[in-house]
Design a protein that fits this description.
Elements lengths: L6 H24 L6 H14 L3 E2 L11 E5 L2 E3 L13 E10 L2 E10 L5 H19 L7 H12 L5 E2 L5 E3 L6 E5 L16 E4 L2 E3 L5 E3 L6 E3 L5 E3 L2 E6 L2 E4 L8
Antiparallel strand pairs: 1-4, 2-4, 3-12, 4-5, 6-10, 7-8, 7-9, 9-14, 10-13, 11-12, 14-15
The structure holds magnesium ion (2 copies).
Length: 252
């Protein structure tokens, strides 16, 4: 069962999401060839502490780090380590915090130096699909409309929509009900209501949508080795429509 949040509760989640947005904004601009994924993680950790929050992922089911860093064919849940980022890589950075008891969650995929036109297109289409999904977050619509919006935007490009991992409700916990798949049929699933706060997070592959989890029990990679991109926002559904709580546009 999912919970509806009051205006006051949404503003508490927004406080947490603002920190997420600020940290992601800063670290995304700092990614350069030669850094390790652990360097990116350390910077995210330090900024989180400086802003008075706690990393949400560190210790979550034993996850050891502040961010998930997923490079190239890694889809989600990559563990930061001594891997050196190379020119032409793309890195998905997924990051959440808890602040005064409330969670925020967001993800971006960024280029490392100059990347190919194929990489740029995959990132652009994936990010666009997130905004298409957010656009349908109107009370009375249904969860299937969200996934359908993602699918309709990415699949005509020959891209795959990952099935194994989904978005989620968020609030007092990092992952709450309901689940938000990135695929679906319009007019199906739970009805969206004002007061729902959800994390929408399309994971898109340049090839087949199937993924497998590596022996570290975390990192999900594409089975066919194709590139993957991941974007995520925490969104409040209100009677006036969707509000992107992890919005970064005012920071750019
Ligand atoms: Mg996330
Ligand atoms: Mg999430």
């Amino acid at each position: 069962m999912y919970t509806l949040k009051s205006e006051r509760e949404i503003s508490k989640i927004k406080d947490s999401c603002k920190i997420v947005a600020e940290v992601l904004h800063i670290i995304s601009k700092e990614v350069v060839p030669g850094m390790t994924t652990e360097d990116v993680d350390k910077r995210a950790y330090d900024l989180t502490i400086k802003l008075g929050a706690k990393p949400a992922f560190k210790g979550y089911h034993g996850f050891p780090k502040t961010i998930c860093a997923s490079v190239n064919d890694e889809v989600v849940h990559g563990i930061p380590d001594s891997r050196v980022l190379k020119e032409g890589d793309i890195i998905g950075i997924d990051f959440g915090v808890v602040y005064d008891g409330w969670y925020g969650d967001s993800a971006i995929t960024v280029p490392v130096g100059n990347v190919t036109a194929e990489c740029k297109k995959l990132m652009k289409i994936t990010e666009e699909s997130l905004y298409k999904a957010i656009d349908v977050c109107i009370p009375g619509n249904r969860i299937g409309d969200i996934g359908n919006a993602v699918q309709c935007h990415v699949e005509p490009h020959g891209y795959g929509v990952v099935r194994e991992f989904v978005g989620h409700g968020i609030g007092r916990a990092l992952h709450e009900d309901p689940q938000i798949p990135n695929y679906g049929k319009t007019g199906t699933g739970v009805k969206l209501q004002a007061g729902m706060v959800i994390a929408i997070e399309p994971m898109v592959t340049a090839g087949d949508f199937r993924v497998k989890v590596l022996k570290n029990n975390w990192t999900a990679v594409t089975v066919d080795g194709s590139l993957a991109a991941h974007f995520e926002h925490t969104v409040a559904i209100t009677s006036n429509g969707p509000v992107i709580l992890t919005d970064r546009t005012h920071l750019i």
